Amino acid sequence: MLEKIQSAATTPVTLAEAKRHLRVTTDDDDQLVRDYLRAATEYCEDQVPGARSFSQCTWEWKIHTFPDDTFQIPRPPLQSVTHIKYYATASSTGLTTLSSTSYIVSTPTSLPGLVELHPNDGSWPTVADRADAIQIRFISGYSNVPEQAKQAIKMVVGHYYNNREAVLTGTISKDIEHGVKALLGSIGYGSYS
Predict the structure, then answer these.
(1) Helix (H, G, I), strand (E, B) or coil at 185
(2) What are 61's strand-pairing partners?
(3) What's the pLDDT tens digit per position in 71-127?
(4) Do both 78 and 130 map to the same domain?
């Protein structure tokens, strides 16, 4: 289970950029455009193959067991791993924090981030048999959001703004969807969940 712990403080496209794109010159709809920016950003993050975090967000990933000696972290690009905690036994009520010296974190910008068991440790610790036995908190997001993502967000905001009565937020026309997926497909690199 993947849960967003802290959302990004800002959206990749500023209010001023969105208003320029929409050709809006008054401040009357500023809050509406901000709402569309947040919805469009979340929509576009999910449309990138493999899903992304465009701006810096904190996530917690709860898993049953360590997938392998090396495993990929969802919602790339990975910036850092805050901690890895685990339930050591089925009767354990508290989480144990895994020493950061027990694993190596790889944070490439064009590939998924990785967590690798440190070669000197031998194996991951034994964990309780429960769905949330391991809890990995991490920060992901681009330092510089790709222009393709910004353009896709502006397209979706434009669609929401121009069709506010005709569609529900979160749904877009097939023409816009095709353009958005074409833009975002160029920054994806596979599906990771």
Answers:
(1) helix
(2) 2, 136
(3) 999 999 999 999 999 999 867 678 999 999 999 999 987 778 999 999 988 899 999
(4) yes
Q: Which two tokens stand for residue 174?
A: 């097939």
For residue 60, give both structure tokens. 């917690």
Helix, strand, coil % over all residues of the chain, rounded to 5? 30, 20, 50
Backbone angles phi, psi at 138, to 5 degrees: -150, 165
* Residue 127 structure tokens: 């964990």
> What residue numbers bound the domain in which 179 lies?
2-53+144-185
17, 71 contact by CB (below 8 A): no
Whole-angstrom distance, CA of residue 50 vs CA of residue 174: 21
Q: Per the domain annotation, does 47 fall within a domain?
A: yes
Say which amino acid occupies 191: S
193 Cα distance to chain centroid = 11
One domain for residues 74 and 134: yes
Residue with the two structure tokens 């010159």: 25
CATH number of the domain bearing residue 15: 1.10.3230.30
Q: How confident is the model at residue 187 (pLDDT cuts 50, 70, 90)?
A: confident
Give residue for tokens 């009357």.
28
In a domain, 191, yes or no: no
- Do 81 and 99 fall within a single domain? yes
- Contact criterion met (CB below 8 Å) for 172 and 159: yes
